[in-house]
Design brief:
Layout (H helix, E strand, L loop, with lengths): L1 H9 L1 H4 L1 E8 L5 E12 L2 E9 L5 H16 L7 H7 L7 E2 L2 H16 L9 H7 L17 H8 L8 E3 L2 E3 L12 H16 L3 E6 L2 E6 L7 E7 L2 E11 L3 E7 L4 E4 L2 E4 L2 E2 L4 E2 L4 E8 L2 H14 L1 H10 L3 E6 L4 E3 L1 H4 L2 E3 L4
Antiparallel strand pairs: 1-2, 2-3, 3-7, 4-6, 5-6, 7-8, 8-11, 9-10, 10-19, 11-16, 12-13, 14-15, 16-17, 17-18
Helix pairs in contact: 3-8, 5-9, 8-9, 9-10
Bound molecules: adenosine monophosphate (AMP) and magnesium ion.
Amino acid sequence: MKRNIEKSLYIVAVCFFLSAYIVFAPGCALKQVQYTAVGTAMGTVITQHIYTKGENITGNIMEIITSLEQDRLSYRVSESEVSKINAQAGSDLFIALSKELNDDLTTCFNVSTKSEGAFDITVGPVTRLWNIDAWVSGENTEQKIPEPEQICSTLTHTGFDKITYSDDQMLLPEGMSLDLGAVGKGIACDRIADYLDQEGITGAVISVGGSILTYGEKEKGILWTVGIVNPRNTETPIGTVSLSGEWYVSTSGDYERYMEVDGKRYHHIMDPHTGYPADSGLSSVTIVCKSGILSDALSTACFVLGEKEGMELADYYDAAVLFVDIEGKLVMNSAMEKIFRQTKEN
Ligand code: AMP
Ligand code: MG
């Protein structure tokens, strides 16, 4: 996976391409332009469809995502704000946070508290112990399951409740670190929406890996249709959600990054209480709500919690939720029932 990410980032300049075509409204002169772009950032594929009467802003959006990753969120980039915080772990000096990161961390800790630790951005030492960066969708059969003692001792360096956090400042205990991998793509969608507001864009659908932003409209009265991946056949959607205006759709699944040992799948969504991949009987969770960071945090949290508690959490945040379990059964809350349509062959 790491190799793929590096390769993807390396070829970003090559594989980033643009196309545009003119959209005519019946009986009108030139109405608006659709710009389409596909590129790579945050170690994932970014797809943009933008409807505007103005100029092509797809390149600016790629820059927003890249700078969010490099300057703010990535623990892998030594100059990022998160890396600088991680480098201070164990010091008894409070670390001052930027307003943006402070707002995002407030949301993260809120979801951590409400999910009783199922969502936890301090889980990084556990994901590194499992070496999930090396997993490429089941291919790495030589990967090993960590010993229970290793997991136990790693868990002493995790737990959001060990962090002292108040008034835009943080004290990170020795050996701990922040990993915003579960929310980075959702945060990117939030930042993109702010930029679309600023630019007065008519409509857009932008996907940042497993997080998707729908914005405005492309034609009056036409809904956006977003496909939801079938976790056991990722080539075809299991269904679609139909949305009007600004919404955020995030999916967490056991198919994104995993290894298989003796026929058992070990995936990248960890239960922070056990230090093992979450064993909640689910293969994917999709959240639709009004915030990118929340949709991304909740999809991860609900995956760990499982159907019953996950649904309570989604309802608490007024989010629509769809669970697909490991048998392929679909369960959703009433908010999702209103917008979801299952694909016939599923
Ligand atoms: P997502 O695909 O949005 O569910 O995010 C999964 C990523 O978040 C993983 O690759 C890890 O980097 C990180 N992660 C794994 N488990 C958790 C968890 N329980 N809470 C927060 N972050 C997690
Ligand atoms: Mg997530």
